[in-house]
Design goal:
The chain is an alpha+beta fold. The chain contains three helices and four strands. The chain is elongated.
Length: 120
């Protein structure tokens, strides 16, 4: 869907009249700390597409999962690889999305531009 130019106009139309949104980035088959560098590359591309879509739609909150799977990754190795991935990824986030990034729920990462919805 992120590669289809018709997606954003269709989503924008469905968003009409609603004030606040969170966008959930793709996560299936994506692994920012994958051993295979090609998988990491595809993951970064999909995350960047999600950031771009959020910006174009005026969405200020984007949920991105870390991809941590306890039975697959050693925690120490995963942490090291995760830091390397996010340090490289976040500076490229459009609209300053990297500025407010941080650990939110367990090992999930959420990036935002620092704005808070009214009343919250």
């Amino acid at each position: 869907m992120l590669d289809d130019p018709a997606t954003l106009p269709a989503v924008r139309e469905k968003m009409a009249g609603i004030d606040h949104f969170w966008l959930h980035a793709p996560f299936a088959e994506l692994a920012p700390c994958a051993v295979d560098p090609l998988v990491r590359e595809v993951t970064a591309r999909r995350y960047r597409q999600a950031l771009s879509a959020a910006r174009q739609l005026g969405i200020r909150r984007l949920v991105i999962h870390s991809g941590y799977i306890p039975l697959v990754y050693f925690p120490e190795w995963f942490t090291e690889q995760s830091v390397a991935f996010w340090r490289e990824f976040l500076p490229g986030g459009p609209g300053g999305y990297g500025a407010g990034a941080g650990k939110r729920h367990g090992r999930d990462a959420a990036a935002d531009d620092g704005h808070r919805p009214s009343g919250g």
